[in-house]
UniProtKB/TrEMBL annotation:
Its EC number is 2.7.1.180. The lineage of its organism: Bacteria, Bacillati, Bacillota, Clostridia, Peptostreptococcales. Residues 1-26 form the signal peptide. It comes from the Bacteria. This is FAD:protein FMN transferase. It holds the Pfam family ApbE. One of its GO terms (cellular component) is plasma membrane. Flavin transferase that catalyzes the transfer of the FMN moiety of FAD and its covalent binding to the hydroxyl group of a threonine residue in a target flavoprotein. Belongs to the ApbE family. It comes from Intestinibacter bartlettii. InterPro entries: ApbE (IPR024932), ApbE-like_sf (IPR003374). Mg(2+) binds at A177, D293, T297. Its main location: membrane. Magnesium. Can also use manganese. Keywords: Cell inner membrane, Cell membrane, FAD, Flavoprotein, Lipoprotein, Magnesium, Membrane, Metal-binding, Signal, Transferase.
């Protein structure tokens, strides 16, 4: 039990916030008299958890920027956000003007879509709305409904340049697979501009680890048990001693059950159905938030073997868990990850 407890702080903090469902903040002094600022709230459709060590309380600044990111740039749900405006212009033949930030996000997503052979696809929007898993009206669509929308999925139909973005009629952009990672990127930009010694920022399933803890010991980050009874159950933990981004995608996060079948929210763009690669969880560690988030989705869809070349291309590390509770790791992850759950076993690739 001792080796499990040392990873629990962050995962339990996020879990408790989810149960309470409210904002909270605190200021404390660390053991070396350094200020510690914490803040929790709800934005971007998920729980935001911040722990910052430094001279200034930047927690509300970061939270405000995350809200602005959602409301003004990347949400398809928020009226007059840049992505919402792009979706409304579909088929008009006119380019939608974008900020440099949104333009860069889309270009990076398109490159990752190409590199993953379309496993990551930002044009999955209409089919994601059809399933609405995690929304107000989740359901399992009829095959005919999916077949009708599949022609409107294909990242190559999204055209982005310095003059804006253009999509054909019937297409809808959804950046849900990278949005939380983008939130972590924005958080790091704020930390970089200020006098911060260390921080952990959690935006749903994506985490930024920044700087050092007050006692200079490595960060301990828990990975959720994908078949645990609740979000406090953990698979194991990561020991982190450098700035990095960590993202996890799993079939346990958002799903519905029908006739004993689990239908999760990670949709395969090639079929329109929840991905069936044999995996139940993928955790990525790399040096960019958008990429860690997007890679966790792409690798979940691709499966263990097909993910390897993609991970190498982006110099990313990964932990894979399959439906038989086997755990696989890339070479670089073996020094970072410790399996603490006896219900799983590590298998050498």
């Amino acid at each position: 039990m001792k080796r499990i407890k040392k990873y629990l702080s962050i995962s339990l903090m996020v879990f408790c916030i989810f149960l309470v469902g409210c904002k909270s903040s605190a200021v404390e002094k660390s053991s070396d008299n350094q200020n510690s600022y914490s803040y929790t709230g709800f934005a971007m459709g998920t729980t935001i958890s911040e722990q910052i060590y430094g001279k200034s309380d930047l927690t509300k600044d970061i939270f405000s920027e995350l809200q602005s990111l959602e409301d003004n740039l990347i949400s398809w749900r928020v009226e007059n956000s840049e992505i919402s405006n792009l979706n409304k212009s579909a088929g008009s033949g006119k380019r939608t003007k974008l900020s440099s930030s949104t333009e860069n996000y889309l270009k990076k997503v398109l490159q990752l879509s190409k590199d993953s052979d379309g496993a990551l696809d930002p044009t999955i929007g209409e089919i994601a709305r059809l399933w609405d898993i995690g929304g107000d009206n989740p359901r399992v669509p009829e095959q005919e409904e999916i077949d009708e929308l599949l022609p409107y999925v294909g990242y190559k139909n999204l055209d982005v340049n310095d003059d804006g973005a253009l999509i054909p009629e019937g297409f809808k952009i959804d950046l849900g697979a990278v949005g939380k990672g983008i939130g972590c990127d924005i958080s790091k930009e704020i930390l970089d501009k200020n006098d911060v010694d260390g921080a952990v920022i959690s935006v749903g399933g994506s985490i930024l680890v920044y700087g050092q803890k007050p006692d200079k010991s490595p960060w301990k980050i828990a990975i959720t048990d994908p078949r645990g009874e609740d979000e406090s159950s953990i698979l194991g933990g990561l020991t982190i001693d450098k700035d990095c981004y960590i993202s996890t995608s799993g079939d346990y996060e958002k799903y519905i059950m029908k006739d004993g079948v689990r239908y999760h929210h990670i949709l395969d763009p090639s079929t329109g159905y929840p991905a069936n690669s044999g995996l139940i969880s993928v955790t990525i560690v790399c040096d960019n938030g958008l990429l860690s988030d997007g890679l966790s989705t792409a690798c979940f869809i691709l499966g263990l073997e097909k993910s390897q070349s993609l991970l190498q291309k982006y110099n990313a590390e990964a932990v894979f868990v399959d439906k038989d509770k086997n755990v696989y790791m890339t070479d670089g992850m073996k020094d970072m990850f410790e399996l603490t759950n006896d219900n799983y076993k590590i298998v050498n690739n």
